[in-house]
Amino acid sequence: MGAMGRCLGLRSIVLVCVAAAEAAASGPRHAYAAMMSDPVAKSQTMLALPSNMVPSPVTSKGHHCSSLSVTYITRPKLVEVVGGLLGVTKLSSTCAIPYEHSASDAVAANNTRLAKLSSALSSFDQIIDSAQGKKIVLFLDYDGTLSPIVNDPEKAFMSPEMRAAVKNVARFLPTAIVSGRSRDKVFEFVKLKELYYAGSHGMDILVSSTDSQSKTKDDREAKPFQPASEFLPMIIEVNKSLVEATQSIKGANVENNKFCVSVHYRNVDKKDWKLVAELVDNVLKDFPRLKLTTGRKVLEVRPVIDWDKGKAVEFLLQSLRLDDPESVLPIYIGDDRTDEDAFKVLRERNCGYGILVSQVPKETEAFYSLTSPSEVMEFLNSLVRWKEEESPKVHDQE
Ligand SMILES: [Mg+2]
Question: Which of 264, 352, 354, 369 is 20–30 Å from 345 (CA)?
C-alpha cells in the first residue's frame, strides 16, 4: 500500500482496468457516429503502486474535435480523507490540491497558480482585444458559478438578475450550460430555452433545434448526445444502493443526475465524512464499471468512460461548427474540479480562456479568475455592454 493510503488507514488501492468490449452508444447519428471509437478492451488488476507509478488513464490521443472518441479509463477507486476533505486517489498532478480550502489553506497555497491569475474583470479589455475578429462562445458551469453554493442542492436557485444577465449575453454569444446536474434539473434552474445544455458532466448534451447551421428538418430536431447511455440501468441501480447505504447518515443526500450520481456530504457531521466515503466505496465494489470523483463536498459516481466537461466542450464546439480557433474564442467559467477538464482543453488547444470562480488560490488550468457568482454576473454584463457598444443595432455577432 502506498504511504498516503497507509497514513489514511483505508483499504488497499486496487485499480481496475475495465473490459468494455460490448460498448456501443445508442442513438447518435451523423457526426456522433464518427466520434465513437471502439472502447479499450483490456482487463487487469494491480495492487497498490506509489502515486508516481500509477498508470495514466486511457485517453484518446490528439484531443482535437475531429478525433473525439469515447474510451474507457482506469478507475481510481480509493476514497481518502485528505486535509479534512474526501478525495480520490490522484491519477494526475492536476488533482493535487483538494478543491475546497479553509482560510489557513488559502494562506498556505498562496504561491499556487491562482496567485498569478488576473481577475477576468480587470483583464476584460485584454480578453476583448484577443477576441477581435473572432466569435466568443460561452460555456458556463451552474452550481457555484451562476448560483451560490447552498446547503440544500435542491435549492441552488440562480437570482433573477443572473438569469437576465445570461439571457442578455446569449442574445449576442452562443452560450452553453455545462453542469454535473442532470440536464433536466439544470434546465429547471436556468429556464432559458435559447441556451445549449450539457448535463451529467457532459454525458447528456442537447444541441438546440435553433442551431442555425443545421440544414434539414431532421437535423434541426433537438437530439441529445448521450455517450454513457448504456450505463443508465446501472446508474439507477447504484443510486438505489447509495440511498440505502447512506440513509442512516444524517445530512447525507444522494442525487440521481441521470448518467451519474452525486453523494452530497456538505450537511454531514465532519466526523462522519470518512464513514460516508467508506459506505460509497463499499457500494462501488459491486460496480466495477463506475468510478468515483470529487467535487465541492460531493462524491460523484460516474461511468468509467473517458468523457468529461472538456470533451463536452469539444463536442459542442464541433457540433455547432465553432471549432476553428482562428475564428472562435471559447470562454469557460466554472468553480469546480470537474471544470478543470474544460480549462485544460482550452489551454491545450491554445484557444480561449478558462475562468476559475474561487475566493481562494487553487491549482488550476484556468487563465483568469473571478471571486464569486456576483463577479460572474458582472463579467457577463460587461460582455453585453461591449457587444451593445460594438453593434448597437445588431443583436447577433454574425
Ligand atoms: Mg460548479
Answer: 264
Output the CA 53–ligand 1 centroid distance in Å: 31
Could you report the per-residue pLDDT of 297-350, keeping only the tens digit for each? 999 999 999 899 999 999 999 999 999 999 999 999 999 989 999 999 999 988
Can you name the residues that pair with 206 across neighbouring β-strands?
197, 224
Q: Residues 217, 218, 221, CA angle at the centre, nearest 5°?
A: 85
Strand partners for 81 = 86
Q: How far is the CA of 1 from the centre of ligand 1 (A)?
A: 33
What the block records as the C-alpha cell of 60 is 484518446
Exposure string of 282-293, with b = 16+ CB inside 10 Å and e = fewer, is ebbeebbbbbbb
Q: 71 Cβ partners below 8 Å, 6+ apart?
A: 37, 39, 40, 58, 59, 60, 305, 306
| CA separation, residue 370 to residues 219, 264, 361, 366, 376 (Å) | 37, 25, 11, 11, 6
* CA 230/CA 25 separation, integer angstroms: 7
Secondary structure of residue 114 in the 3-state scheme: helix
Going by C-alpha positions, the residue among 347, 336, 361, 390 that lies closest to residue 140 is: 336
Q: Following CA atoms 306, 310, 315, 317 in sequence, which dihedral angle do they give, to the nearest 10 degrees? A: -170
Ligand 1 mean position, distance from CA 202 (Å): 13
For residue 250 the three cell numbers come to: 444524517
Q: What is the pLDDT of residues 226-276, one digit of tens each?
A: 999 999 999 999 999 999 999 999 999 999 999 999 999 999 999 999 899
The model carries a pTM of 0.73
| 43-46: long-range pairs with CB below 8 Å, 24+ | 43/17, 43/18, 43/19, 44/17, 45/14, 45/15, 45/16, 45/17, 46/14, 46/15
CA 142 to ligand 1 center in whole angstroms: 5
Ligand 1 centroid – CA 293 distance (Å)? 14
